[in-house]
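FORM 7B - TANDEM STRUCTURE REPORT

SECTION 1: FIRST PROTEIN
SEQUENCE AND TOKENS:
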Amino acid sequence: MAQTSLKARLQPLLSNIYHPQDNPNGIVDMGTAENHIMTKDVYDFANNKIRTTPRTFTYGEGPWGSKRLRTAMANHMNTYFHPFSAIQPDELVFANGITSLCELFGYAIGSPNDGILISRPSYQAFPADFGAKAGLKCVNLHPFLDMTAYKDEWAAEDALVAKMEDNGVYITKGSLLQAEQAGWFRIIFAQEDDVMEEGFKRLFNAIGASKVKAQ
């Protein structure tokens, strides 16, 4: 059976995102790894503190990051993380996001079809990040829990998710997020306050409607 592309799976969500004025009936997405608590501060810092030069918009010193950037990161890590030995700028490599870093790391540590142990719960995009180009296989590791003991709890979770979906609220199941225990739904606080409020309102309304149907 042909696999559906990531773009095809995400398009219905990304093309219908909730906005209080522009799209009030859209989908409230609380599942992205973004920190909206700090976005305003980052925006202000980027606009007021960062200074660029024409050289910034060239190939510069290579694809691993400029010396200025690597020096700043080395100083930051040495100051706040206190490594056993001081990190030097030349020891750092920058990439455009976690997917690229995992891809580079995959090429460095293994060959196609090698396995890499990933302890659960874990970032659900690791299999694609390590596998798409480097060809590594993620082997999920359960270091502390016998999953077979929880089959009844997983079944109850599936039933709850189905009820929520009947009422218009879509929750990612713990099993898909590689959670170690049933019922560990993740709500990531990745939206502005008004969007989070709308999302929780829909969630609570769905729970209430589910209880009414059960009666």
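SECTION 2: SECOND PROTEIN
SEQUENCE AND TOKENS:
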Amino acid sequence: MRVLVAHNYYRQRGGEDQVFEDEVDLLRRNGHDVETFVRHNHDFSGLQTISVAAGTVWNRSAARAIEEQARAMSAEVVHFHNWLPQISMAAFASAHRSGAAVVQTIHNYRYTCASGVLYRDGEICEACLGKAVGTPAVKYGCYRDSRVATIPLVTALGIHRAKGTTAKYLDAVIMLTEFAQTKLSDSGLPTDRMYIKPNFVSPDPGEGSGAGGYVAFVGRLIDNKGIEVLLDAWSTMPTAPTLRIAGAGPMEVAVQASADALENVEYLGRIDGSAVSEFLGHATASVVPSLNYEGFPKTVVESYAVGTPVIASRIGSLIDIVTDGETAFHFEPGDTDGLRAIVGDPATWASLGAMRPIVRGRFESELSADANIGRLVEIYDAAIRHRHA
């Protein structure tokens, strides 16, 4: 199959960038003819900010370039990941004009929330949910903490929603979870063309031993990841298994302070690549104490890949991804006592070993590269049928 995959890289590299690269590699390894169209947020200077802001609404240059590339390669599918800010939704129409089926993977909640996470000032925020124009987002400066930056994004979303751009031109919409599908059902996206396909890990790291006797956290050290909840819980559990934290972000100082003060908390800094798989594979459990809805946390997929059960907040997409008592344990978001109860219960540790084969089996059946390529091609086939119906 001939596929053009388009993505606007984030200024600070994140999970969406990795998913884009992994999926392109997966398609190529399975014999598909793949080209990419990319833009980088570090490719423009401050002097170009105004033109980039205008292009967020309708970027003619990017739209034209995508159509030309799709025609030149006779693309059967044009697959978008992130279009913000240098590609724009105008490219959906130009990709459609090329004759290809048009697909987008939705990694976050940005179609209904300028920040993309439905979280503001330490709590869940749905002020713009279902609204044709997200005026509350402008009031609070939700995109990049800036009203000036938020205005063009909200304008773009409002204009394209009024024009019905996604309903007209998207032949398939890939959602990561049922929760995300439900939350975005009133965002202008075509609900009759939504397909659920989770993220995956490749290459397969193999099952880990889980013999390290520690609890692992991997991720950005920011408020909505529940870092404070994590540190508060361990601050009163001197005999609990060691908490090892890997990551970087604004809360590094607080994490390092806890590591300095507590014998059973360690801060490793940022780790990448195979080191993450090794770290999670040796862990007895990993912990995901998120306060926001999440998209599809990479840490969960990476934990499942090595057979490590997850202790996670019962919130948003984590309810779909993590099965309480089978592949993980749930506690209420922000509930430090609930987290302590799980970690401090000997029954938890007695059951974690038996969970490992179940967790690994979930990875093999749903989150592996083999499972993912089959589902992705199914969705592409459905998109092509819709395009030519």
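SECTION 3: OBSERVATIONS ON SECOND PROTEIN
The chain has a mean pLDDT of 94.
The radius of gyration is 21 Å.

SECTION 4: SIGNATURE
Preparer initials: ____
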